[in-house]
Design a protein that fits this description.
alpha/beta; Aspartate Aminotransferase, domain 1; Aspartate Aminotransferase, domain 2; 2 domains; seven-stranded mixed sheet; 13 helices; 12 strands; 13% strand
Length: 393
Amino acid sequence: MEDNKRIVYMDNAATTPLRPEVVDAMIPFMTENFGNPSSLYDIAKISREAVAKARSRVAAAIGAQDKEIYFTSGGTESDNWAIKGVCFANCDKGMHIITSSIEHHAVSYTCEWLEKQGFEVTYLPVDKYGMISPEDVKSSIRDDTILITVMFANNEIGTIEPIAEIGKIAREKGIIFHTDAVQAVGHVPIDVEEMNIDMLSLSGHKFNGPKGTGALYIGKRVKLDPLMHGGDQERKRRAGTENVPGIVGLALALELSVAELKESSERLTGLRNRLTEGLLKIPKSHLNGHPENRLPNNVNVTFEYIEGESILLMLNRKGIAASTGSACNSSSLEPSHVLTACGIPAEIVHGSLRLTIGEMTTDEDVDYVLKVVPEIVQKLRNMSPLTPDELRT
């Protein structure tokens, strides 16, 4: 990064900073209240009660019951447990899974692995906005379908899927419905009962909680096998000593996010729209994802005739942290499977830029990005032999 440049963080979909009050809540459980929740003495009881309180907080945030919340190490573990656990526990009823073509790799790679174990997977297409059709879900159901897993909101393009409709279809057919809601929890209203969701994955570091923490909501009617075996923790369903500081931090961060959701969503949506409108003034730029039905903090734009990796490096020199897509695949040179599924031509998929704003983002940050990005895009286009003359300066 160049000297004396401001730092503007625009990658909140990758991770978010811990809120100060969350840090304060976690520290005692790293110091004096270090007891193992499974033990019987007093300091262990303090930890045990803290985990119980955290479970109640998470349940209230998504409209669930306390006993339906299970703590994990994050969204990836929650997704793996939900999908593998249901499939192996119910394979006597069938071996067919329905998912989408734009899932996070924690879901898609798990489904691909299950195919090697003899399961069959239907990968549903999406429209140009990344939307899944409930009718496609319905028509893909077979007599041996045991699981439908569709993400709540896409991590790259921010499109929010018709989860309640898909959940209703699954419930009417008696099929378990799981949603990877890692990007949605704490950012949009969620009620698992109203939306007919049987299982839901969430991750603490997406809503200003600690990394390495997550939870899986498992509804009462779900039968699934454990993913991790060992002790009797999490009511004998998820072995391993509980990460008490992380669980406490996750729960408080989620409670605060939900309490501030309306005000925060309105502010972020305003910043998002201003950022989007400014970037789309750049010639040959295109918004990816649904123009309206999207996360309040997500902007994903494709610029023709440039490479996303180049724009990220130049943005970094200007003090702007951004992404070309999912942080989990930042080292891959493969084109985004999400943008490809949306029908974006291969030759321009690599020119995508994802900017995801957060609680720290200010109007001044947006102004700075809108000043810097057009300059960088123009500079890169001037360097490219593919750029037509009318786009050069």
